[in-house]
Amino acid sequence: MAFQRNIFKGLEEWKNTKEHKPLVIRGARQVGKTTAIKDFGKKFDTFIQLNLEKSGDRAFFTDELDPKITFQKICL
Questions:
Q1: Rounded distance, CA 14 to CA 7, Å?
Q2: Residue 19's pLDDT band (boundaries 50, 70, 90)?
Q3: Which end of the chain is more exposed for a tag (fewer CB within 10 A), N or C?
Q4: What is the mean pLDDT of residues 28-47?
Q5: Model-level pTM greater than 0.85?
């Protein structure tokens, strides 16, 4: 990436928090959310990106309410 975005400071704080919740990124179109998250994801051994605007990704959360089963589905 050619320039450092302000979002990376917040993402690093989230990453370094001991007990953090799932990360949800929202904002205007075409501002670099996806690019920022993909770049940030490179810092992890395992990285799963779900775009809940896509029906295939959203389907993980429509049929099952048990978080353990939902997590297993995502990992598969």
A1: 11
A2: confident
A3: C
A4: 89
A5: no
Q: How confident is the model at residue 42 (pLDDT cuts 50, 70, 90)?
A: very high
Q: What is the DSSP string of 47-68?
A: -----TTSHHHHGGGTS---HH
- Tokens standing for residue 1: 């990436």
Provide the CA 32 distance to its chain's centre, in angstroms: 14
Q: Report how far residue 7's alpha carbon sits from residue 19's, in angstroms, rounded to the nearest whole number.
A: 20
